[in-house]
Amino acid sequence: MKFETYDLQVGIRLAVLFAAMLGLAFAIVYEREFSLVLVLSVIILVTAISFVRYSKRVIRDLSSFLNGFRYGDFQQKLSIRHLGASFQELESELQLTVERLRKIHSQQAQQAFYLQSLVQHLPLPFLILHDDDRVEIMNMATRRTFNVAEITNSGDLASFGASFQRDVLQIQAGESLLSNITIDNSEEHYILSATEITMDGRSQKLVALLNVQGELDATELATWQELLRVTSHEILNSLAPVSSCAQTAASLIADVLASGLDDPEVRGDLEDIRDAVDTIARRSEGLMGFVRSYRQLTRMPPPKMQKVLLGDYFQRLESLLISELAKSGISLNFSRHPAGLTVLADEDMLDQAMINLVSNAADAVRDSGHGRIDVRAFMDGKQRVILEVEDNGPGIDPNTAKSIFVPFFTTKQQGSGVGLALVRYIMLTHDGTALYSPGPKSGSVFRLVF
Q1: How confident is the model at residue 2 (pLDDT cuts 50, 70, 90)?
Q2: How many separate domains does the chain show?
Q3: Is residue 371 part of a domain?
Q4: Where are the alpha helices (DSSP H) in 188-334?
Q5: FRET partner for 447 with CA separation of 20 to 30 A, picked from 29, 239, 267, 327?
Q6: Which one, of 52, 46, 3, lies nearest residue 21 by Cα?
Q7: Is the preceding omega at residue 264 within 30 degrees of 0, hence cis?
Q8: Cα separation of 104 and 25, whole Å?
Q9: What percent of the chain is helix, strand and coil (3-state, nearest 5)?
Q10: Is there a domain that residue 107 lies in?
Q11: Looking at residues 42-48, what average pLDDT do you find?
Q12: What pLDDT does 390 receive?
C-alpha cells in the first residue's frame, strides 16, 4: 500500500501518540515508576504539539492562499504537491480556479477602465448626489461646464443659481426638467435628467445635464427669421405701390405748378398737397429701407471659416476704428492672452459683429467726457475663446437687458434694432453665442463666446 506524505506524517504522529498513551497507562497501573510516567507524558505532549503544529501549518498555507483572493491577489502560487497525491490534485484544481479568477478579474479591470474612460470623455456632464449631502463630479465635462475643480456638497451648487440648486435637489428618479445655470455671469438652459443607482447597497441619485441653449437659440432665431421674411415681404409689397403713387402724384403736382397756374389760392393748395405727398413718398422710402435692413438677417450666407490670429486681427480692427473714436475723445484699448490666441471664424462676419459692438459702446460713452472701450481676447476655464467688449458708460437697465438681442428692439431714438440681433445671429452660425453682463463697476460687457 502506497502511503501519501500527509497521511504518513499524520499516521506516524498518531501512532507515537497512541503508543505513548498505552505505555503511560501501563506504567501508571503496573510499574508505578514516576520517571517512566514523566518521560511518557513528555513524549505525549511533544507528539500532540507536533501534530497540532503540522496540521495548522497546512491549514495556514491554504488559508493564506485563499485569503489573498479577498484582497485581489491573483498572482500568488500554492505549493502543496509534497504533501501527497491527493494534495497534488487539490493544488491543480486550485491553480485552475486561480487562473480562471485571474482572467475574470483582468476582464473586469479592463471593463472598469473602459467604462471610466468612457464616462470621463463623454461630453455630457454628470453629478451624483449621495445621501449624506455629498456631491460627486463624474467627468471632465462636468468640470468644464462648472469651471471648477471640485463640487463637494449641495451647498456648492448655489453659486450656479438658487433655482438650479433647487432643481437638482428636488428632481426625482425618472424625471426630466428644464433648468437655468448661471456661469460666469451668463445664464444657460439645461435639461436635467435623474436616475437612481445602487452602489455598495446604498441608493444614490445620478443627474445628467444636457445643454440645450444652442438649440433654443437656433429655434428662436429661426422663428424670428421666418417672421421677418414673411412680414418684410408683405410690408414691401404694400409699401412699394404707395411710394410709387406718391412719387407720381408729386411729379404731377410739380408739372401743374410749373405750367404757370395763376390762381394763388389753388396754387397754395397744390403746394400743400405736394408737401404732403412728398412726405408720404419720403416716409414710404424710409420704411422700405428700414424693412430691407432686417432682410439681411434672413439672407446672410453661411460663414467661410478660417483660422484668425487675433493679434493681427486686433491691429487691423484698431486702425479701422481708433481715429473716428479719438475725434469723440474715446480711448480704445486692445489686449489678448495668450499672445498667439486664434479663433476659427469668418473674418468678414467677425468684422461686422465687432464693429457693431464697438459702435454701440461708443454711443454709450460718447457724452461721458472720458469714454473708454476695452476689447479683450482670452480663453476661459472651459477652453473657449472669448472676445469681450467692455465700456465705462451708464450700463443697461436690468429689465431692458433681457430684450437687447431681440430683433426690432432698440433703446436709441434713431436705432433700428438690427445691430445686436445680427451679432447674435453671426455667433450662432459660428456655433457660439453672444452674451451681455453688467460691468464690474458700471458700463456694459458684451462677450462673443466661440
Answers
A1: very low
A2: 4
A3: yes
A4: 213-258, 264-299, 310-327
A5: 327
A6: 46
A7: no
A8: 58
A9: 60, 20, 25
A10: no
A11: 76
A12: 93
Cell of 205: 441619485
* Residue type at 169 in one-letter notation: L
Structural domain range at position 280: 216-299
Residue 117 maps to a domain: no
Same domain, 89 and 127: no
What would the DSSP string read from start to end of 311-366? HHHHHHHHHHHHHHHHHTT-EEEEEEESTT-EEEE-HHHHHHHHHHHHHHHHHHHT
Q: What is the pLDDT of residue 345?
A: 92
| 334 and 444, same domain (yes or no) | yes
Exposure string over 38-62, b if 16+ CB within 10 A, otherwise e: eebeebbeebeeebeeeeeeeeeee
Instruction: Determine, yes or no, domain membership for 112.
Output: no
Cell digits for 77? Answer: 502560487
Query: Of 43, 73, 102, which one is at a domain's C-terminal end?
Result: 102
Give the Å distances, CA to CA, from 345 to 118, 136, 171, 208, 334.
31, 36, 39, 31, 19
Do 271 and 391 have their domain in common?
no
CA distances from 174 to 165, 190, 197, 204, 240 (A): 18, 16, 11, 13, 57
CATH code at position 325:
3.30.565.10
| Separation of alpha carbons 95 and 84, rounded Å | 16
Give pLDDT tens digits for 332-379.
999 988 888 999 999 888 988 898 899 889 988 887 778 899 999 998
Is-above-0.90 flag for pTM? Answer: no
Residue 393 shares a structural domain with residue 411 = yes
